[in-house]
């Protein structure tokens, strides 16, 4: 259904004076647009009559450019506008994601597109608003026109004026990393807490004492949950938010390129959507599909090759420090095509050996896991990091002790696939040079997924992980992979903005502190009850859960520990939604706790339905999900350092069916610090309407499987 009604020119003059409004289908969200003062575009948003975004300015500033015909006096797209046209319409459809939390998604909004025209020079931009029951998106559009063809955006000045000093769950704004611990504070406290929040990272560029990243989750003192992010960030830099903390006004802050410019544009073009999700119920923030809905439909005709993946891998032992990615310690430096690895002495710690990979393949086959990730299989790891080296890897040449042909054949004979690893060391031009051959090699041996990575400062030097050039690169890697029927899971790339709807072979990203940080000193116990409100708004995270030996010193010299209980790790397969889930611990650790591992074996990675049962940012999340194509349900509950008592009414189960219910929960004396591995497993039969009450320990959680009794 698509209804378009045009407000004709005759109506235009009065429209200049009054605000123009567009409401959500249920009327709860109201967006008003008006021009003020000297033709400055502004908008405001309310939810159930409460102000959410107070009157806020819209606009952009251009870089003068002789080549593009933009004179210094023509750089302002901030004021001097008149409304030259307004169009409103409604849209309602149900679409089916290739994978997801639910098998179908309602996309229902009312839209208003306001054309704004300046006279000297004559230029028109459009501000388009889409208003949903759970929020809204707005973007700038630049139609084809003679006075605005090519142009460079110096700054985008989209403001988000907050209605109060909200509580915020924020990360320091940074052009290169999101791998920070979330800070929970009032908006007015961001400035004083910023310095301590900026912990060391391999590549980082902060920009302001009040600059934060999106997705930014907030809560007002009267109980409104407010989330700011962006959708469909294509051919544009990633947006941060800078806070004017006297007035509680955020303004967009785009990631610059090496010259300080933000975005190179050619009309017709649009910016990404700037998104607001709002509700008085925290669960709505998690079930919102607003960001996916603001992305374009799937671009691929055939998606039959895109499959959710449960995997294990030769990985955690390297992260913890017991094994190495590199093959030898003999060379202080290596050169692709010159260094002869066949004569090098192995260091004895290399993880990706043929024998070790076989052991993982056997483990995956025995336990029904789809894939085995192998890192450190290819030459170049001896000096891959810290030297701003251009030609680091060729993504094609295995170390002498990794038999790529035999291992793939062995895996395939057991119904398992290997997962490719492309660490680029952020040398992006080098990666693009080899990309086609690297994907061809994957096709040759039967790999269908790649984990890529961008550790370190970007080459070309001066560019940032979240700039326009890099955002184009990440998408290029995904669309080129699609030509080879390859799925992509990119680490250290920009944080997602829902592009997985359009390009569903983007099955995962990192772009936040993953489980690896539990080996680098740990993440706070509330980390995974914040991420679903923030990082996961734009798309799934390859969080790599499932660590059972939470005290790393029990089996390595690493003194860190995982800041959850063992049962809490099980919860992450539900709470941290992803079509790509790792069983990240070592096979021998799973064998030791085989009864708890049963949950990881059973849990699905693709869903027909999801019900958020309880949620509060930073405190707890409880979610039930129905496994795709079955009548089976799984429930996960995770909490912070304070523990939680989950109450789950099983009113979503099918009437008349009996379910075999297995509850994997924290034992009464469990505690993420003192007694992390104390868990209990209870089995019983349940039916619709029954209630489960489950205690979660400090830093704990639980997993429940509900399998229909045949
Ligand atoms: C960082 C990634 O997050 C991690 O998973 C990977 O093992 C290393 N880079 C090496 O590529
Ligand atoms: Ca990382």
TrEMBL record:
From the UniProt annotation, give the residues forming the signal peptide: 1-19
> Which UniProt keywords are listed?
Hydrolase, Signal
Q: Which residues form the Glycosyl-hydrolase 97 catalytic domain?
A: 315-512
Q: Which domain of life is it from?
A: Bacteria
Name all Glycosyl-hydrolase 97 C-terminal oligomerisation domain ranges: 606-706
What InterPro entries does UniProt report for this protein, alphabetically? GH97_C, GH97_catalytic, GH97_N, Glycosyl_hydrolase_97
Q: Which residues form the Glycosyl-hydrolase 97 N-terminal domain?
A: 22-297
Q: Name one GO molecular function term.
A: hydrolase activity
Q: Does the keyword Signal apply?
A: yes
Protein's recorded name: Glycoside hydrolase family 97 protein
